[in-house]
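Exercise 7b. Backbone tokens:
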């Protein structure tokens, strides 16, 4: 199986995926920002990279259309959002229906959107975590593939909590991709994930 990974920054999840050797080919790493640190990492590992800068496009639709054109040039089986900080149009999401994956730093459906750790701390929750899910037009609400939970500790700051969760992201993200690339995952008619690896 071939995957393309989309990043916007350091790409630590992409790096963890590469290190985990998830049994698939990373055909390319693509970013919306030319200064994304993960691009240099991918290049140093001989992975093709590309930049589709959102600033070069007048609107979301034209950006997403160019992004899809570049992605499709690699003909991936799955498109993986890993720290990709753009909201994608329904047209883009529909084009990759059932093969577009995202990792989000919360236990969805709790804390959709941004600043999840600060919000969790502000609410005094005792358990927080991360989720890998299929992307649908309903932001951060797609079918869940895998989650991990961590305790929120008394003296946690946004940084200490984020670091504890990032560790778990780097474990569940490669696991989800491995399952996808070995055809263990399917969506049932109710839009729920069926995982043959767990049956
Ligand atoms: C991570 O917390 C991830 O869950 C979110 O973006 C953050 C940065 O990810 N989507 P990465 O280090 O760039 O992979």
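Sequence design result:
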């Amino acid at each position: 199986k071939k995957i393309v990974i989309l990043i916007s920054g350091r790409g630590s999840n992409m790096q963890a995926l590469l290190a985990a050797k998830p049994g698939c080919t990373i055909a390319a790493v693509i970013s919306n920002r030319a200064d994304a640190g993960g691009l240099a990492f991918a290049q140093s590992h001989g992975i093709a990279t590309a930049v589709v800068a959102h600033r070069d496009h007048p609107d979301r639709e034209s950006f997403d259309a160019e992004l899809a054109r570049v992605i499709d040039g690699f003909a991936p089986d799955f498109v993986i959002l890993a720290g990709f900080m753009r909201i994608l149009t329904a047209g883009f999401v529909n084009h990759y229906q059932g093969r577009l994956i995202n990792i989000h730093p919360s236990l969805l459906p709790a804390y959709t959107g941004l600043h999840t750790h600060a919000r969790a701390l502000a609410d005094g929750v005792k358990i927080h975590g991360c989720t890998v899910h299929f992307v649908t037009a309903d932001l951060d609400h797609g079918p869940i593939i895998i989650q991990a939970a961590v305790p929120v500790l008394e003296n946690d700051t946004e940084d200490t909590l984020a670091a504890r969760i990032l560790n778990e992201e780097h474990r569940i993200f490669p696991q989800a991709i491995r399952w996808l690339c070995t055809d263990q995952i399917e969506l049932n008619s109710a839009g729920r994930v069926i995982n043959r690896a767990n049956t």
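Instructor comment: Helices lie at 12-20, 37-44, 60-72, 90-95, 116-123, 158-181. The longest helix spans residues 158-181.
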